[in-house]
Amino acid sequence: MIRLFAAFLATILLSVPADAFETQAKAAYVIDQTTGTVLMTKNADEPLPPASMSKLMTLYMAFEAVERGKSNGGLDLTEELPVSQHAMSYGGSTMFLDTTDRVKVEDLLRGIIVLSGNDACVVIAEALSPDGTEAGFARLMTQRAQQMGMTNSTFANSNGWPAAGHRMSVRDLGLLAMRLITDYPQYYPMFAQQEFLFDGRAPQNKSNRNPLLGLGIGADGLKTGHTQEAGYGLVGSAKQGDRRVIFVLSGLDSTAARAQESEAIVNWAFRQFSQRSMGDKGTLIAEAPVVLGAQGTVGMELENDLSVLVPVSGGSDVSAEVVYTGPLRAPITKGQSVGELVLTRGDLPEVRVPLVAKDSVAAGGFLVKLEAAARHLLTRLNEGPEAAS
Questions:
Q1: Dihedral over alpha carbons 28, 31, 37, 41 (to 10 degrees)
Q2: 221-278 residue pLDDT tens
Q3: 27-271 belongs to which homologous superfamily?
Q4: Which residues pair with 239 in a beta bridge?
């Protein structure tokens, strides 16, 4: 493995680590979705009671079902679903449904997102469950979460009601938030809806509990949660300019603490870090030696446009290196992967960027191969009798 210092970046990447955010949450996870940069973790992989934040998994599976369509075992937004006695039995945050109701899927989705309806979750769950029960749907939720890479998530119900074994990590919740935003942008605007008064019922439960909506900081989702065991939590997201930040907080001790901590994290993430363009696709980064080729070197260029997140403070704490296994052996095809550009940014995670061959290098002829063989033999002889033998 050969490392070369990428001097062209040395004058561009000038920064030091931003001041760490000291959160009061029991667990926290903050990621800049635009660049994939994790800005903060605290107990990020510990399975914790997620309370109503786990409703996001029910919503994800409901969106999947709507996209499949009713003819393929899914749902239709205008389809009306019945309310069971089990769904009606839930307390806490509800849409105040009863067994005489038949409710449109779209209203149920808004009831889950805006009103945090425990009953609405169960109506969706029983419609999609393999055996028609909420427990059956919870098993399906766990299976689907594992498929999506949420390895610290297990579900006992559809709505986050306190139950043994109902757990999610804040990193899993962050991954789920990203999937909701990227996989189902057509439904994501629902998460910014601040009020939903279903059928004129319970006007005291018409407001979205997300404390960041309407503050003018770009917040547009996603879900709050609270139980005595879990404390107060929030899966939040905000977009300012071209950047989107997603964060998860869990285990705060009051609604006020949740509101203050959430707003502070959004401000910190956008003010302490900035996204910078470091080079366009095709920018030449380095030259690497080539053996047995018609040319002795090949250019190593960016495979794609390079944009990274850096702290805004001044300094010189970021370095860049080119890493490849060499010397490279001809023939080489233009666009072939030949190495990586590795960026180190203080306390931020390392970034590894693919580099590709700028041009093709054909295999050398007989004289090139003869020269290479002679050079190799001479090197071995200079290393001593044992190497030569």
A1: 0
A2: 999 999 999 999 999 999 999 999 999 999 999 999 999 999 999 999 999 998 888 8
A3: DD-peptidase/beta-lactamase superfamily (3.40.710.10)
A4: 244
